[in-house]
């Protein structure tokens, strides 16, 4: 082998080496640029992932906040939804005072929160919607005293209530029971009342633990009053103030419409209640206490001579004498600040056969 061929041979090997080195460099460059790219890309990806995470977290937080606010709304609503079974404002027994010079304006001023005879608690939703029905004629002073005491009393009991005074126009014989039927029918025209309190105008409750709400059975709220030594007058006594649900009252077809003048319409209602297998409930004697404002028998409300005869026929007539046969001439419905005044005209009582 001559020198020239050795050089040629070497240079061939050298060229191969050169090509190999070049290839290696290309590979090294490609790899390094890829690596560099990856290294540079990582923070981008990282920030992308980070941003996504942030976004989802934000979304989750928003959802959480939304959920929280719904919970808040629900909480507000749920505290709004029920007043406690026992109101925290009850005061117990009280000594009632009746100021001779009291005026309607004064009572209105003392009760600015009452509008159109109605009120309901602002802090919670009342357990029952209660209509107080008061039969009335020519007893303005008694009505004033009753309104003065009853509004704060019912508010302390946290009730959603309305006071209806059903006024008998003219000089026809007074008919307490029929007036109360009218009150029930008219009151239901403006509100879906749950409970009805049938209330004499001259009886003022002394103890606000005597709840003006309805129960599973009809309630008689006057266990005793001042002028009868706070004792129950007789076993089946159902007069003065009673509480019946809408359904209990409709089940007995309300009061009879046929008791003109004083007496026994309350006993008639008790018989109806018992005929429907309902049982009269009463509060305890220390709670069911009333002051009856003194009065004598009114003109136009003389004792009803037919009352014993009427009492004997309840089981025969109750289905056709009551709410479903109560006809009257409605003269007016006025929404006064402290009560709703319903004035009705009853034609002369028909002769009882
Ligand atoms: C008893 C009963 C009463 C009723 C009555 C017999 C009690 C406490 N009360 O009341 O519920 O059964 O006997 O009918 O046992 N009224 C007027 N103007 C009148 C007449 C009556 O507004 O001219 C109203 C008023 O709401 C009065 C109610 O009718 O409170 C009952 O009449 P009452 O007070 O003269 O009869 P009283 O006290 O014997
Ligand atoms: Mn009375």
UniProtKB/TrEMBL annotation:
* Compartments reported by the entry: Golgi apparatus membrane
- Principal place where this protein is found? Golgi
The way this protein sits in the membrane is described as: Single-pass type II membrane protein
Q: Which UniProt keywords apply?
A: Disulfide bond, Glycoprotein, Glycosyltransferase, Golgi apparatus, Manganese, Membrane, Metal-binding, Signal-anchor, Transferase, Transmembrane, Transmembrane helix
Gene Ontology MF annotations: metal ion binding; N-acetyllactosamine synthase activity
The record's Gene Ontology cellular component field reads: Golgi cisterna membrane; Golgi membrane
**Record-annotated Galactosyltransferase C-terminal domain positions:** 219-296
Membrane spanning stretches: 12-36
- Please give the InterPro entries that the UniProt record associates with this protein: Galactosyl_T (IPR003859), Galactosyl_T_C (IPR027791), Galactosyl_T_N (IPR027995), Nucleotide-diphossugar_trans (IPR029044)
> EC number(s) per UniProt?
2.4.1.-
Sequence ranges assigned to domain Galactosyltransferase N-terminal in this UniProt record: 83-215
Q: Which reaction does it catalyse?
A: N-acetyl-D-glucosamine + UDP-alpha-D-galactose = beta-D-galactosyl-(1->4)-N-acetyl-D-glucosamine + UDP + H(+)
Name one process (GO BP) from the record.
Answer: carbohydrate metabolic process
Q: In which pathway does it act?
A: Protein modification; protein glycosylation
Q: What cofactor is needed? A: Mn(2+)
Function (record text): Responsible for the synthesis of complex-type N-linked oligosaccharides in many glycoproteins as well as the carbohydrate moieties of glycolipids.
Which family does the record assign?
Belongs to the glycosyltransferase 7 family.
- State what protein this is by name: Beta-1,4-galactosyltransferase
């Amino acid at each position: 082998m001559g020198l020239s061929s050795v050089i040629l041979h070497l240079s061939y090997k050298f060229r191969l080496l050169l090509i190999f080195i070049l290839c290696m460099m290309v590979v090294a460059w490609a790899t390094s640029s890829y690596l560099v790219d990856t290294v540079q890309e990582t923070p981008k990806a990282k920030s992308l992932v980070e941003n996504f995470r942030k976004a989802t977290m934000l979304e989750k937080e928003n959802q959480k906040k939304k959920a929280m606010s719904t919970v808040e709304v629900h909480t507000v609503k749920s505290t709004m939804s029920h007043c406690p079974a026992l109101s925290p404002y009850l005061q117990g027994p009280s000594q009632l005072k009746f100021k001779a010079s009291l005026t309607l304006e004064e009572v209105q001023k003392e009760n600015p929160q009452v509008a159109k005879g109605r009120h309901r608690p602002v802090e919670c939703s009342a357990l029952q919607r209660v209509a107080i029905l008061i039969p009335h004629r020519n007893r303005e002073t008694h009505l004033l005293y009753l309104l003065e005491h009853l509004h704060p009393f019912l508010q302390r009991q946290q009730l959603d209530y309305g006071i209806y005074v059903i006024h008998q126009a003219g000089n026809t014989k007074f008919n307490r029971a029929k007036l109360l039927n009218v009150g029930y029918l008219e009151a239901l025209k403006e509100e879906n009342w749950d409970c009805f309190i049938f209330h004499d105008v001259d009886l003022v409750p002394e103890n606000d633990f005597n709840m003006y709400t309805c129960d599973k059975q009809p309630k008689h709220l006057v266990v005793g009053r001042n002028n009868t030594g706070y004792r129950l007058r007789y076993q089946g006594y159902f007069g003065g103030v009673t509480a019946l649900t809408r359904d209990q009252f409709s089940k007995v077809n309300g009061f009879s419409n046929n008791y003109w003048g004083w007496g026994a319409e309350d006993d008639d209602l008790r018989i109806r209640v018992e005929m429907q297998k309902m049982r009269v409930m009463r509060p305890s004697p220390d709670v069911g206490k009333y002051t009856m404002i003194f009065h004598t028998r009114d003109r136009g409300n003389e004792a009803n001579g037919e009352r014993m005869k009427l009492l004997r026929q309840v089981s025969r007539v109750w289905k056709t004498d009551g709410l479903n046969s109560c006809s009257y001439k409605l003269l007016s419905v006025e929404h006064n600040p402290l009560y709703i005044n319903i004035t009705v005209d009853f034609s002369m009582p028909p002769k009882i056969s």
